[in-house]
Structures are given as C-alpha cells and as structure tokens.
Design brief:
The complex is a heterodimer of chains A (about 180) and B (about 140). Chain A has about 180 residues and is an all-alpha fold. Chain A is built from nine helices and no strands. Chain B has about 140 residues and is an all-alpha fold. Chain B has two domains: about 70 residues, no CATH class; about 60 residues, no CATH class. Chain B contains six helices and no strands. In chain B, helix 1 packs across helix 5. The radius of gyration of chain B is 18 Å and the shape is globular. The chains are: A mainly alpha (about 180), B mainly alpha (about 140). At the A-B interface, helix 2, helix 3, helix 4, helix 5 and helix 7 of A face helix 1, helix 2, helix 3, helix 4 and helix 5 of B.
Chain lengths: ~180, ~140
C-alpha cells in the first residue's frame, strides 16, 4: 500500500494517462477536457449570445460525467491515498520560488500564498485566479484544445496543429515564468 | 448505467494526475524552468505510448466497444489559431498552474479557490465564442 500513498513517479503516471486516453477512444469518445467549458457555457444559456454555443449539450453528458469523476478522483487521492509527504521538488525550483517570496514550498500541492481561503480574496490572488482562468478558457478554445486534446491525443496522433499548439503553450508559459513572474511576484 | 464507465474513467484520471502531482502549480513552474524531468517524463511517456497504441489500433482496425470503427478526429489546421490560442493558454497555465482537467480535480481535493478559476475559464470560453469570427483563424 505504501507505494500507492507516496507520490507516483512519472513512469507510472505517464503510461496511465495514455491508458485514460485509450479507454476513452475504445469507448468511441475522445480525450478532451476543455470541451466541457463550452458545454457548461451552453447549459448556462450562452446559446442566446453566440452560435458557437448552439449545440445539443446532452451529446456531451458523457464528458461531464468524466469531469464529475475527476473531482471524485481528486477527493480520493487527497483524502484516502495520501500520506501528506512534502513534494520532492528540485532544489533549484525551491530556491527560485523563495527568491520570488514564496515559503513552505511543496508542503501542499498549491502555494497557500495564492490559493488558501485566507488569501484568495486579496486583490493580487483574486486577480491571478481570474486572469489565469480566463486565459486558459479563452486560449484553449482558440487553440482548439488543451493539454489532453492537443499535447496528449493530438501529438499521439501525430497531428501538426497539435504540435503548433503545444509549442504555443510553451512560448506562453516561458514568457509568463521568465518575463512576467519577476514583475508579478 | 451507461455513464458509470465514464465516471470511473474520470476517477482514475483524477487520481493519476493528483498522485503524480501533475496538478501542482509548483510542478508547472518547475517544468517551465526546466528544473526537473518529472513533467516531461509524464507527458513524454504518455505521448510515446499513445503513438504506439494508436498505430496498433489503426493497423489492426481495432473497433470501439460499440463495434464502430475508431477514428481519432483530426484537429483543424488553423495554424494562426493554434499558435496564438496556444500562447494565450500557456500564459494562463503558467500563471495559475491549472489546465482544464486539473481545475476540477483540485476542487475535488478541497481547494475551493478553483471555483473562481473554473468560472473564469468558462467566462474566457464564453468571450471566445462571442468574438470568434473576428479573430484570425
């Protein structure tokens, strides 16, 4: 049981992500998490404002069920399959984050400076949460997919649009971390 | 009942990403700083196995459980959209550390801040839908 409670190494997680994609494909579906954001907009009545949201969301019930499952999976992983070990982040990462003003790095999955209930309603944290969510939601639909649809499924299927999108993910990510982070933190 | 199998796929996927720390803001930072092999190992091994498995599925014309031919849909070749949208996504991914799967999983782990991220991501998708036709494709 101990190996289940410890953090899982990449060579376990990577193949299991491939298994997730393959199961969905064998079920006659696809592996794409970001589509659910569009479905949720449609359920919320976005079809009144743009044709993009006019589709029968019931065809996406299966994917919303996957989403519900991921939440339950997150609950199980955090509450039943955890030994609260500190993350084994690289020393260089810890040093860099300390220089940006973070502390207790890796004690929890997310930095409490940004995500703890005490901090989320500070102007800075709230702005970061809203802006990051907005950029992810806008960017993923514009790019035609996210990490699951482009980086895993698209690259596995050797599709050029996915390679272009993944390079884009990295250009944006590197710009944020190297250029904008020193200004934000 | 036919949805139950999808619920289990989601549970499985959620456990894998949380236990491997791929949902962690710290791990995304570390990845973009090239300071650990962890995230590259996860994505790289998933893609490598994915490539091999999809080739096998195509070569042997393996069918889905409904008996249908398996077709992995082609992504649209809108390179401007793929690249500009990709950059915008990357900015958000690095800033908040959560992409569209992990934001739900993290909510499940008890991070209620994710409600704000999810609602903002819906808003982002909504705004995209409104101005889609005015954007370069």
């Amino acid at each position: 049981m101990k190996f289940l409670l410890n953090p899982w190494p990449w060579y376990v997680a990577g193949p299991l992500i491939a298994v997730t994609m393959l199961i969905l494909i064998l079920f006659g579906k696809t592996f794409g998490m970001s589509s659910n954001l569009r479905t949720l907009c449609t359920i919320g009545g976005a079809g009144k404002y743009a044709d993009f949201f006019k589709f029968d969301w019931k065809t996406q019930k299966w994917n919303l069920t996957v989403v519900l499952g991921t939440m339950i999976g997150g609950f199980i992983a955090a509450n039943l399959l955890s030994n609260d070990s500190t993350m084994a982040l690289s020393e260089a990462t810890i040093t860099d984050l300390q220089a940006l003003g973070f502390s207790n790095i890796g004690a929890t999955l997310l930095p409490p400076e940004l995500f703890s209930l005490e901090n989320i309603f500070t102007f800075k944290s709230l702005s970061i949460l809203i802006i990051s969510g907005f950029l992810v939601g806008f960017g993923t639909r514009y790019a035609g997919g996210c990490t699951s649809g482009h980086a895993i499924t698209g690259l596995s299927n050797l599709q050029l649009p996915s390679l272009v999108a993944v390079i884009g993910f990295f250009v944006g990510g590197l710009f944020m971390i190297y250029i904008l982070f020193p200004l934000i933190f | 009942m036919k949805f139950l199998k999808f619920l289990f796929v989601g549970i499985f996927f959620g456990i894998v990403l949380v236990k491997s720390e791929a949902v962690s803001w710290y791990r995304i930072f570390e990845m973009f700083k090239f300071q650990s092999f962890h995230m590259y190992g996860i994505i790289g091994s998933a893609v490598l196995i994915g490539i091999i498995a999809l080739q096998i599925i195509k070569k042997y014309h393996i069918k889905s459980i409904d008996g249908e031919a398996i077709v992995v849909p082609q992504k649209a070749k809108n390179y401007k959209a793929n690249s500009i949208g990709g950059v915008i996504f990357g900015l958000g991914w690095a800033l908040g550390g959560a992409c569209p799967g992990p934001m739900y999983m993290l909510l499940g782990t008890g991070v209620f801040a994710m409600v704000i991220v999810i609602l903002s991501a819906m808003l982002g998708t909504f705004v995209y839908g409104l101005i889609k036709n005015k954007l370069p494709q």
